## 1
Amino acid sequence: MPGNRQVVIANVPTGPLEPSNFEVREGDALAPGEGQVLCRTLALTIGAGQRAGLQGSASYAGAPVSGVVMGGTGIARVEESRAPGLAAGDIVVAPTGWQELSVHDGAGLQRVEAGIDPALQLGVLGTNGLTAYFGLLEVGRPKAGETVVVSAAAGSVGHIVGQVAKRQGCRVVGVAGSDEKCQLLVKELGFDEAVNYKDPGFRAAFKAVTPDRIDVYFDNTGGDILESALFRMNLRGRIVCCGVVSQYDTSNPGPGPRGVPGLLVNNRVRMEGFLVFDFAARYGEARRELASWIERGELAPRVTEFKGLEAAPRAFVELLHGGTIGTTIVRL
Amino acid sequence: MPGNRQVVIANVPTGPLEPSNFEVREGDALAPGEGQVLCRTLALTIGAGQRAGLQGSASYAGAPVSGVVMGGTGIARVEESRAPGLAAGDIVVAPTGWQELSVHDGAGLQRVEAGIDPALQLGVLGTNGLTAYFGLLEVGRPKAGETVVVSAAAGSVGHIVGQVAKRQGCRVVGVAGSDEKCQLLVKELGFDEAVNYKDPGFRAAFKAVTPDRIDVYFDNTGGDILESALFRMNLRGRIVCCGVVSQYDTSNPGPGPRGVPGLLVNNRVRMEGFLVFDFAARYGEARRELASWIERGELAPRVTEFKGLEAAPRAFVELLHGGTIGTTIVRL
């Protein structure tokens, strides 16, 4: 039985996340029981939302515990199967966590095509892409000609939201955290405009790039950017509440945005939270559509890759500091 | 031509509203032009939302100006008509403002049955009742068995919201600003529970009366009560944003509630603002239904009355201090 290196939560962060909140250890040998499979992790994806899982009971992921393997979704190869319908060599998406090996009940596992790059499987065809797809199309419901604004626009979800909105015939404005990201959004991903929220002139710039105000605001951040968007919403605008990255990397979230609920009343704005899991019954349909858009060159997913399990904590911290673009992947 | 006493805005309030923000004066004589009618005000209604109109451009009512007649809706009798289809003696609902006489274009006026008490016309069959009706049924969409919470529950809109929700088979909890109001809600208006938000133990009491959490929260207040409700929402709960009375009586509104947008995401909550005017095409249908509920004893609208035009400023201040119950009416 091979060794199983794991990244565990060494201590629950009380301020901004640091690599020292994690440590690498050698786990116990694993063997699949009846109906189970032993899997070897090929790649992991890391998302900002996982930071919420380290915040305690305030999050939907429940309270964190130190000493346990950091959770996460991976692409894995079945090493040994005692589950019907799964054989050694099959490729699956699984809640592997940050470790080399993991054991899962075969029943709940999703087998994927072996030939497709794990970065695609975990990114645009995984939770990130599906979140963008259902959040924008089902919650935001943009119409052609409307203005769509997305925050964390160069992030795993945001960069897909913007491209899908363009496909729908919308005018698309991205909000991101560096001039480099803004340039990428406009020059390579087809956004009409992008503004850097760290720029001191952000509010004026934001106003200037939304001359017809905002019909759909896809919010990945909460906080000040949400507040800026609230003050620019059109009558009957929709705010898609997808994530709160501005509040994740702290144990002391700030107050809510000014203008709630007054501006919602005045402008008859709908603000709605969602989780992608609510749309699980329609994942297949969405994946097929996303894949066809990629094939036709209408959607260009981006990935930032890290090499080796030990890089996962650093990847997570860089992601939270805005240092990654598109889906963040750790290849083992 | 008779005199026309008027209440004008003497000075725009910078803190809590006081009667001294208004003054009574004698206005110029009025005569209707071609297509117009001269109306004598019989009764005025005052709503907390009018305080927003004195806050400047932050409100949907536009910036206030001192020296002008205070705006407002009244029931009036046509004294002289030069408009087709309207005759002296007709009773109309009109934007009379706080004055004895006013001139209006006949075209836009809504004639009402002469026999119905102006307090009903301006209250449950007017904007207050229609706001409760459409906000609850069309935006909140409560299902039988669900828990509905309403703030400012003894107010003009709130006391109708609660009763309509009971009719829909919901469990209804009111939040109000005094123990007397809470008793009235439970003992006379059929609310299942009511809690006083001024009580130091409010948060614990609020939790205790919402053991199954909240499916629909009808928010007339914003602020701390909205924040408390946000933390008690059920999965797929709906927050109907109707008014922000906690923020009206100030020129310096506070920050938004904590939990926006994080809790909206976690619990997939929809938070939606509306204005009753959006449903104008369906007012007739709603009035007929509300009237039928009153007739059958399923809806008991309440009114707090003041006598004389000079009482209007005091009525407004008392309303904002929570000193009135149901619709606030000034009879001239």
Note: The domain at 4-120+302-331 of chain B is CATH 3.90.180.10 (Quinone Oxidoreductase; Chain A, domain 1).
## 2
Amino acid sequence: MKLHGYYRSSTSYRLRIALELKGLDYEYVPVNLLTSEQKGEAFTSRNPFGSVPLLEAGGRDRVQSMAQLEWLDEAHPDKPLLPADLEDRYTARELAYAIATELHAPLNLPVLKYLTNEYGKSQDEIGEWYRHWLARTLDPLEARLAQLGTGDFLFERPGFFEVCLLPQVYNARRFGFDFSDKPHTTRIEQACQALPEFQRAHPDNQPDNPERS
Amino acid sequence: MKLHGYYRSSTSYRLRIALELKGLDYEYVPVNLLTSEQKGEAFTSRNPFGSVPLLEAGGRDRVQSMAQLEWLDEAHPDKPLLPADLEDRYTARELAYAIATELHAPLNLPVLKYLTNEYGKSQDEIGEWYRHWLARTLDPLEARLAQLGTGDFLFERPGFFEVCLLPQVYNARRFGFDFSDKPHTTRIEQACQALPEFQRAHPDNQPDNPERS
């Protein structure tokens, strides 16, 4: 398998965690979003959406992160990301899709670029926008985790939900989001970060991170 | 089952189509988004995200449309929304999640309200924003449909993808989006609209549509 991604792209980060948790070998191919490599013909001929991650697996280019995650679990059922129980599967997906559908898009790079270039918004205003949408999903997410009586992970082992949560929390911290009223979210964050699978998947440890030691 | 929704909410519309395609009986409970009923305590105590649709089913309140769709197919395997073949399942999800994750959020009512209230954007500017993000996903979606050699539906029968596509196309038409260069998308739209399941699910035919004849 080859994962074409960018170290700081939250959707690429999801896939790296998932592949690590499932113990699947993959080659990481950096795509430079800063030079718009993903909009060049060489890339868009393989992925018309012009976005990362692109997962080259099972003889095919796969280009939507949530569909990639669902496929990984169906094609490689060992070490499942989703639990076996029907209700637990619903719960994991509810929280994961809250992040993927409500939160991801308004915070994605193209939207931030639009606000800067078309609306002339400053870095401070972008920060406010970012934190506004973060709160709108991370506040109720924390409430849901409290209702569920979550421990270190949503279920026994980290999976589908944590794969989506950690990259979003990483981004939120970059934008100075205040997590002081979110004990459940931060407990899960810390428990995940202690695991080697999450450490290997972290943006700090990717070859295309220019600050990598 | 009870579906708490709003006639013009695209995610509520997804669920109505899915329930109709699966032949599942449900009671429709209107939630008035114009009076912010979804932000009131009576609603948020059941759904902390304060959003529709809320699906009351299997003894539980379910609150994320994509997780609801995945659950419906697992809990009620008759008349599946997703095809049986692993690769076809990936394809259906790739296109459905492109709509649900990239397209839905920047076009969702809260974002449009933010642009109006915080940034003072006019109705014309909102229209431009809307069509910009539509094109960004609907253009490559059309290219993907062309690559796949799609007929009247993505596969033999409408399912997971069409459930997500039709509400988005309905919204796009409200905002005057130009579909003249999208023969595949519009062929699927027309084939779906000819079916009674899609007609019953249409916003025009919901009890909370004030213009309903």
Note: The beta strands of chain A are 2-5, 27-30, 54-57, 60-62.
